[in-house]
Amino acid sequence: MRHKVIIYGLGRNFAKRYAEIHELYDVVGYCDADLSKTARFRQGISLSELKDYCRVCDSIIVTLASGIRVVRELTQMGIPAEKIQILSSQEKNKSLGNRNPLLPQLISHGNFHEDLALLLYCYYFKLDMHNMRYFEAGLEHIVGGSVTYVLYGNGSKGRLAVYDYPACQNQAQVFRPKDEIVNMKGLDGLTASEIIDCNEKCDVIVLHGKKLTEMCLPLVFKIKPQILICCTPHKLMVQDVVSHDFNRGLSLGNGVSLYYSSCLGEVAGV
Predict the structure, then answer these.
(1) Local structure of residue 33 (DSSP, 8 states)
(2) How many other CB atoms are found less than 10 A from the CB of residue 237?
(3) What is the DSSP letter of 157?
(4) Is 15 a domain residue?
(5) Same domain assignment for residues 124 and 239
(6) 129 with 155: CB under 8 angstroms?
(7) Are 125 and 216 contained in the same domain?
(8) The domain containing residue 256 runs over which residues?
(9) What whole-number percentage of the chain has pLDDT above 90?
(10) Do β-strands 4-8 and 26-31 pair in parallel, antiparallel, or remain unpaired?
(11) 21-64, pLDDT tens digit by residue?
C-alpha cells in the first residue's frame, strides 16, 4: 500500500516532480500559502485546515526550496515534526549518484540531505545498515533534522545527545524506543567526555554545531568511526579531520561535510 501524503507547496518544483510524486505516493491533499494555487485542485486544503487533515495522512511532503523554514513554520502551527518530510531535489540526487532503486529518491529528514548521502555511502561501501552503531550529538528533535533516523529505520541503533531532553525523551518512546537519549542540557560547563564515550564502538558519528564539534573531535579520532558527518562550516576543521586518517567525501552545502575512514577507502579501492 502506498503512503498517503499531503503536498505542501504547489509551485515549480512540484510541477516538475508531479508525475514522480503521484507514481510513488497516494496524494490525498494539496496545500499552499497561495490559495489561488490550492483552488486548482479538487482536494485542495487551506493552511488553516492543514493541522486537522494531517491526521488522515502518513506524511506532509514539502516541495519548496525553503523547506527547512517551512518545517519550522508548520511545527509552530502544531503539526508534528515527524510527519513533515522534505522533497529532495533531483539535482541533489544526481550529485549523490542516486541511481540505485533501493535508495530513497524523495524523503530526507536531514537539514541538507545528509541522511541521503549517508545512505549512499553505506551502499557504496557495503556496510550493514541493519546492524550499525551510531552516535549523533546536538539535536533539537530526534526525527526532524536527524541524520541517523534513516539508520534507525533500517534496524540500527545508537545514542543521541540532545538539548531538550524531556521533549526528546517523549518523542523517543514513540519513534526511537531502541535508542539511548543523553541529556546535554547546554554546552556550558560540559566536557567532551560527558557527551561522548571514547571507549564506545561507533560506525557512524554525526556532530551538529561548531562548538560541539570542536569539543568532541579529539575523542572522535580515538573512536575512529567508519563515517563521520560534521554539520558545521569550518575550513580548518576539514584539514584537522583529514589529517587523522579520514578522507573527505561529499560537501553538502552550508559547511556540512561527510568523511569516511581511510581504512574503509582502502578496502573499497578509493
Answers:
(1) S
(2) 18
(3) E
(4) yes
(5) yes
(6) yes
(7) yes
(8) 110-268
(9) 20
(10) parallel
(11) 888 788 999 999 999 999 999 999 998 899 888 888 888 888 88
Q: Both 121 and 70 in a single domain?
A: no
Contact 133, 156 (CB under 8 A): yes
Instruction: From 59, 63, 58, 118, select the one nearest 90 (Cα to Cα).
Output: 63
Q: What is the DSSP letter of 245?
A: T
CATH code, 115: 3.40.50.150
CA 42 – CA 143 distance, rounded (Å): 32
| Co-location of 125 and 245 in the same domain | yes
How far apart are alpha carbons 219 and 160 in whole angstroms? 16
Does 184 map to a domain?
A: yes
Question: SS3 for 26?
Answer: strand
* Pick from 85, 124, 120: nearest CA to 106: 85
Q: What is the grid cell recorded at 178?
A: 531502541
Residues in the chain, total: 270
Q: Quick check: helix, strand or coil at residue 225?
A: coil
- Kindly report whether the global pTM for this prediction surpasses the value 0.85: no
Confidence band, pLDDT 50/70/90 cuts, at residue 227: very high
d(CA 40, CA 38): 5
Show the cell assigned to 59.
Answer: 506524511
Q: Of 140, 120, 139, whose CA–CA distance to 129 is shortest?
A: 120
The CA-atom distances, in angstroms, between 94 and each of 89, 120, 183, 234 are 9, 12, 37, 26
CATH code where residue 16 lies:
3.40.50.720
Instruction: Give pLDDT tens digits for 181-209.
Output: 988 876 565 677 777 777 778 999 999 98
Query: 508534528: which residue's cell?
Result: 80
